[in-house]
Amino acid sequence: MPAEQVLELLDLLDARGIDVWVDGGWGVDALAGRQTREHGDLDLGVVRPHLDTAIEVLGATGYAVTDARFVEVTVQLTHAEGHRVDLHPSTPMPGGGTEQTDFDGNTFHIPPPEIGRIAGREVRCLPLSAQFHTHQGYDLRPQDHHDLALLNQVVWERASEKHVREYDELLAEARGDGLLERREVELLGPVLATGPVVVHFQSGHGLDDVGLVKAGARLVVGVDYSSVAVGAAQRRAVELGVSCRYAVAEVPGVPVRDGCADLVYTGKGALIWMRDIAAWARDVARVLRPGGHLFVYEAHPAVPLWTWDEDEPRIRPDRSYFAESHVNDTFPGNGAREWQWNLGQIVTAITTAGLHLQVLEEYAEPFWRPQDGTTAAA
Ligand SMILES: C[S@@+](CC[C@H](N)C(=O)[O-])C[C@H]1O[C@@H](n2cnc3c(N)ncnc32)[C@H](O)[C@@H]1O
Q1: How far is the CA of 241 from the centre of ligand 1 (A)?
Q2: Contact between residue 188 and residue 217 where contact means Cβ atoms under 8 Å apart
Q3: Separation of CA 203 and ligand 1 centre (Å)
Q4: CATH 3.40.50.150 occupies which residues in the chain?
Q5: Which residues contact 349 (CB under 8 A, 6 or more apart)?
Q6: 162-352: what fold?
Q7: CA of 322 to the centre of ligand 1 (A)
């Protein structure tokens, strides 16, 4: 269904005072603020007391109810020309938002709608956290993988606002020492001594890049799909006068020439966002010059299994080392979906891409802890 048609339907429903919001695939695109794929149908959340009026308004434009078997969860309407609208009724709650029932009869809370954009116009849409929730508990189809990747990107755009809010603190930190971990400096010392060109996959706030330049890199090119993160990192690099350049782009698919890097640097919360670890490793191999190095300083794949409970660190019953993914409940939050790669999968992806493993170390101390004073080791 094209964007213009979505907006027309929303206008018609709005004119009758019907409380609806866009969910499903169009809702994901609305959160991202741009159309990223074709949508065969339109999914709309609607408050239950307005369901009948919504069906009536859509009926007047040529839609007929074609499936109402699961009226608690969804009512499907089809237009004579074949377009479909799925209405998802939910019950308004006293504290705000609504409560929706899923196909298993479970209920979940939907916070009030957010403002997104379709074809440049503001629309009410299902909030980010609820979008992630509705993508759980079933076998993901290709369009779901697409939507989850986009939702993760929206999460990172929002979470990276932290780098803007804390710009001054990060700038002060960047002016100091100790930007790289001690072991990073030791292992990378010989490579950095040669003045390498470094490409940093998923560069985030970019403090590592300043550390790499201070330790000898001739140039660091940071690549991250958050324009907010890239903007803040670039501004900081200019202010510090360090040789770091940034590009807003997706990994894999880093927009640099084949064989241009002496070193690809990455990690500290990067690999869990890669949907395809083999494609990631191939991109690393493509970007590296012959004889170039990959350096990954990453959270151990077992970290998500542990609670951050100071008194009694334990294995979480809801996690598995061999699971495909889990829901992020620390930072960047919002129910973002992290992909899991165990040590074997990571090493195999790297060696299959043609790289030789030189060092593989494990450390007792995590490089990151939730910023709530938690002192438990992961
Ligand atoms: C936890 S941060 C780690 C980055 C960096 N090492 C740091 O400490 O800031 C993860 C970063 O990966 C970026 N990211 C996640 N998935 C990505 C993708 N597919 N392509 C490009 N960047 C991505 C996010 O925007 C975020 O800045």
Answers
A1: 23
A2: no
A3: 6
A4: 162-352
A5: 277, 278, 280, 281, 341
A6: Rossmann fold (3.40.50)
A7: 23
Nearest atom in ligand 1 to 269's CA: 1
Euclidean distance between CA atoms 280 and 31, whole angstroms: 26
Query: Across-strand partners of 64?
Result: 78
Q: What is the pLDDT of residues 132-144, one digit of tens each?
A: 999 988 899 999 9
Helix (H) or strand (E) holding 66: strand 63-67
Residues having CB closer than 6 A to ligand 1 are 156, 160, 202-205, 208, 224-226, 229, 250-251, 268-270, 273
Counting Cα atoms < 13 Å in the Cβ hemisphere of 136 gives 17
If pLDDT is split at 50, 70 and 90, which confidence band does 105 have?
Answer: confident
Integer Cα distance of 69 and 76 in angstroms = 9
CATH class of 3-134: alpha beta
Query: Which parts of the chain fold into alpha helices (H)?
Result: 3-15, 24-32, 51-60, 128-134, 142-159, 161-165, 167-175, 182-192, 207-214, 227-240, 277-287, 343-352
At 146-177, the pLDDT tens digits run 999 999 999 999 999 999 999 999 999 999 99
Asked if residues 236 and 170 have their Cβ atoms less than 8 Å apart, the reply is yes
Pairing mode, strands 114-118 and 121-125? antiparallel
The pairing of strands 63-67 and 107-110 is unpaired
Give the global pTM. 0.93
